[in-house]
Structure formats: structure tokens, C-alpha cells
Amino acid sequence: MEGLDSEPTTRAASSRPSRRFAVRRDGTRPGSSSRLDMVCWTIATVGLALWLRSGPNARFAPLFGLVAPGLRWAVNADYRRRIRRWVAEAWEDVEAWSRGADSIPWRAALAFAVGPYFLLQAVNGASLGTFDTRPVIPTTVSLVRQGDVDLREFEAMRPPLLRARDDSLLYCFQDVRGRLVSSYPSGMVPLALATVAPAYLLGADLDSAATFRHLEKGTAAAVAALALGLFFLAATRLGSPWGAIVTTVTLAFASGLLTTVGLGLWQHGGVVTWLLAALLVEFAAKGSPGRWATAFQGFALAQMVACRPTAGLVVVAFGVWVLVRSPRRGLWLGLCGVVGLAPWLVFHRVVYGNLIGAGTIASHTHSAWSFFALEPMLGVLFSPARGLFVYQPWALLAIAAIFGSRRGDAGPAGWRSFCLTAVALHVVLVAAWWEWAGGYCYGSRLLTDVLPLLALAATPVAASLMQRRSGRAGLAVMLVVGLLVQLPCITNEAHRWNLVQPRDLWGWSTAPFFYRG
Questions:
Q1: What are phi and psi of 169, to 5 degrees?
Q2: Phi, psi of 334 (to 5 degrees)
């Protein structure tokens, strides 16, 4: 009987699944999460590839990457626990970083700032590219396909890319020694390579004006998202994660980052990205970066000038800030900046025949400047069409930072003074320019370069206000007002206000945010 009983027992044991393959209570199998993760990443990669290759026909393709994780979240309790645990760990990294830890919380910046903002900007369908931004993508395409920046290959494009209806060359292009090249600085071209090069490899139609507009919008979305992530990391370093979240959200949705940097390849996008990269290095090293980190800062500052020469004033302010604290490092920073700018000087010499570069820069003569005139200064700050405090009401918090307490200041020595001095210098420079209104644009475009500095200065003030109910209410009001002022540019193409002639820069009832077409 004993032998007879053992056979069924053995057979039953052999038919029972091992722990390795046993189904869990939530319906998943051990080891399956990694395979499903790979599937999710593959879908997201395919979505981005379709988005780059198919142009405007695949506008919502980046959202493909959210489908599989969304389904897993809905049906899989284990997956929900994993995500909650991951978010909690990422937030712990942010808090440690804010307290002075050395490890930069890159994954938190990607998950909380860069990724969501990129998706929002990439699929919102709004754009604000003008003749100022038009040369960037064609120049990048020419560089990728033919290894040069001569745009004659696009002469036959229909509708015309380079010429007006009367066959005259558009002002954003110029003929230099038999080559058609951009009339604007080319500092945004290296950033555009991040989308144009893979689009070329994927077989995108790079002889289509619609594809050019799509790639410009996509690149602008990526630049804006990168800038926001860098800002989040720098602001968090100031000691208050929640204060940093407030100013990060405010910068994202209630400033020119939303309606200028994210809607077209304006030179300001490169300026704020490289500036924030240099600042992050400074903040991460607690004001004492090493030799190679300082070299990177010099390179980043040089790229700011390559993007927009007027950013040189902010670069000088940064250099003085470093020089005052450490003369040796300040000199090394300046030397590395010169080395970083040298390739651009060579490029300008070869393409344009001079060291300055594009013709629009050469045309900025002394007669175009008038310093310390009252009306332009008031216009730059308070005009209903272009005023800093109208389109970014939260900037008042940065002014409050002048009188705020320095006790417990977590940033490098003198960081607030640098931010506010650079802002003041830039405001004076913009007000002195004959076209202080910034041409065809939306809001205070010409002040976009220093908006991150204002937001950084506002971060400790926001952190303090977050501790009181009335303070939180005030921050919410500023955010909502700033959002309502910026949003018409996206939802109603309010930038078309610029087509109404003559432009009324001072009329509140006819302000751009009230424009209805």
C-alpha cells in the first residue's frame, strides 16, 4: 500500500508549478515585470521615432509611451506599488540634494520636470516660429545632409522657403560670397542636431516646409524641457524642494518659457539652457567647482554668446561673480570661455568673412541704442503688450528677495546678487534697444534670457510663503494670473496681435492677451 500511495503523491508534486513560475495573487508572474518594462520602453521609442519620421502627421506619437504604463497602472497592483515606491525614493533623493548631498537627482528631474513638460510642449499644436527662427532647421538639415551651411539646396522648395513673393531674399537669409546663409547667429544649430540628425536617419522628408516646422517645434519642446529640468535641480539646491516646485511650475506655465522657448527656436532657448547648466555646476559644487567643471562652465557661457551676443552682459556678470570669490578660478573660467568661443569665431570667419558673424549683428550700430530713456524702460517693465511684470507677475517675488533674510541661505555666496544684478543689466540693455518691444513675438520676449534668474531669486521667497495659508493663496493667485496671460498665445494664437497695425503697446483694452482674431 505504501508503494501504491507514493505514485499519486509524486505525480501531484510534479504537476504543481514551481515557485519560479507560480502566479502571484495580483495575476503577475515573477520576472515578468522586467519584460513588460522593456515592452513599455520599446513602445515609447517607437512613438518618438514615428514622431520624428512622420512629421506633423504623427503629432501625438510621443504619447504612445504612456499607453502601456497607463494600462499596467490600471490593472496591476504590484506595478502601482512599484511606481509609488520609485516616486518616494526619487523624492528622497531630491530632499537629500536640497540638504547638500553630492548626488544630483537626475531621475527625479527627468520624471518630475523634463518628461512631462516635453510631452506637453511637443503635442500642444501651438508654434511661434518667425523669420527670426526660420534659418535654424534648414541650416541644420544642410549640415547633416551635405556637411555645409549653404541653403541653396532649398531654392526649389514649394512654398518658397528663402524668398518672398516678389522673389527677393527674405531678411533672415543673406548672400555671402555665393552662399545663401542665415542672417542670425547659428548657436541654436547644435541643439537642433538632436532632432534633425535622427529624423534624417529615420528617413523623414527633409525637403518639406511642414517637416521643418514640425522639427522646429519638436526641438523647441526639447530645449524648453531641458531648461526646466536644469532649473528644477538648481532651485532645489537652495534648500526647499517645495519652494523649488512652486517656482518650477510657475516658470513652466506662467512665463516666456511656455510661449517663447517652447514654441520656436528663438535664440533665448539656447541662452537659458546653457546659463542654467553653468549655474547648476556652481550650485552642485557649493560655489567651488573643480578644474574640469569650471572648464565646462566656460564652454557653456561661450555657447550663450554664440546663441545671442547680447547675452554677453550676463556672461560678464557671471564671470565677475566667480572672479570676486576666486580670482584664479575666474581667470581659468575666462580662458575656457575664450577656447569655447574660438570655433564659432573660425566659423564666422569662414562663412561670413568676419569674426562677428551674421549680418543682422553687424547692423546693430550705435544709432540703434539709446540708454536710460524713461518710456522704453517703463515699457519693458509695465507695458500691457511687453511688460515683464504684466506677463510674469510672480517676478515681484524676486524683487522681494532683495529685502529677504540671508539667514540659512543654501546657495553659493553672492548668488542672489549675481541674479538680480544680471537681470538689472539686461533690462537696461533691452530698454536701450530701438526695438525694445521685440518685433513679432508674444509677451516680454527680450527678457526671456533672465527669467530663470528671476525665478531662482524668487525661490526662497516662495518657500517662505508656502509656510502660511495666506502666502500659499498669494502664490496661487500669481500663478493663475500668469497662466491666464500666457495661455492665449497657445489657445488663440494671440501672437497674431502683432499683425494689427499700428501696434498699441500701451492699451490695456487692446492688449495681446485679449486678442480674438
A1: -70, 130
A2: -65, -40
Cell of 401: 528677495
Measured CA to CA in angstroms, residue 415 lies from 194, 248, 301, 304, 397 at distances of 32, 18, 16, 19, 16
Whole-Å CA distances, 447 to 75, 269, 436: 47, 12, 10
**342 exposure class (CB count in 10 Å sphere: 0-12, 13-18, 19+):** exposed
- In the numeric block, which cell numbers belong to residue 445? 520676449
Q: Which three cell numbers stand for residue 265?
A: 527656436
439 near 311, Cβ under 8 Å?
A: no
Grid cell listed for 322: 566667480
Contact 126, 263 (CB under 8 A): yes
| CA 198/CA 179 separation, integer angstroms | 26
Q: For the CA atoms of 415, 279, 399, 455, what is the dihedral angle to 10 degrees?
A: -150
> Which grid coordinates belong to 489?
498665445
* pLDDT, averaged in runs of 10, over the chain (517 residues): 45 47 46 82 96 92 94 94 95 96 96 97 93 96 96 93 92 93 96 97 95 96 98 96 97 98 97 98 96 98 96 97 97 98 96 84 62 92 97 95 71 94 96 94 97 97 94 96 97 94 92 91
